[in-house]
Amino acid sequence: MAAPSGSNGRRAWAALVPAALLCLAARTAAEPGTAPGAAPSTAEFDVRPGGEVHSFSRSLGDFGCTFTYSAQGGTNEQWQMTVGVSDDSGLFSCSIWRPQGKSYLFFTQFKAEVKGAKIEHAMAYSQAAVGAQSDIPLKQEEFEVTETAVSHREGKFRFELSKLMIVAKNPRDEL
């Protein structure tokens, strides 16, 4: 399920999802009986310009997240990816962002794919919240969401990306 349409729906999701991801990460990390490797995992990586396609992946148990992109301009930027699994393994989260807020690179393409889960909610932002600034979501027509991926929409994406957030549901949880 993508974010609701309209600016009020986007604002509601923009406020709800970060809180849900923080709760998910905190609950998973605080659970003393959590299986090994189930605690949220954050890794830093460089987003490199030059027009070549690059990928960065993280896995947690049966779940995985891969960010594939191509960017131009500037120099390397430090980004982070955090993956987390709820204590009941029903939800998987993947967040990809530039901690400094705004990226100065021009993204020619991007795609974030999840493995082992189906996307329930995904949102992409041109600017990530930092200090007193808020997240600035991409317009809905700039990106598309499928069951397992969030990607730029050819011809509509305006080359700005600073954050992606995905919440996915374990399909085995539906049985």
UniProtKB/TrEMBL annotation:
**GO cellular component terms attached to this protein's record:** extracellular space
The yes or no answer to whether the keyword Signal is present is yes
Keyword Phosphoprotein listed? The answer is no
Q: Which UniProt keywords apply?
A: Signal
Q: Name one GO biological process term.
A: positive regulation of angiogenesis
Cleavable signal peptide = 1-30
Q: Which InterPro entries match?
A: MYDGF (IPR018887)
Pfam families from the entry? UPF0556
The family database entries (PANTHER family) matched by this protein are listed as: MYELOID-DERIVED GROWTH FACTOR (PTHR31230:SF1), MYELOID-DERIVED GROWTH FACTOR MYDGF (PTHR31230)
Q: What is this protein called?
A: MYDGF factor
Q: Can you name the source organism?
A: Thryothorus ludovicianus (Carolina wren)
Its taxonomic placement starts with: Eukaryota, Metazoa, Chordata, Craniata, Vertebrata
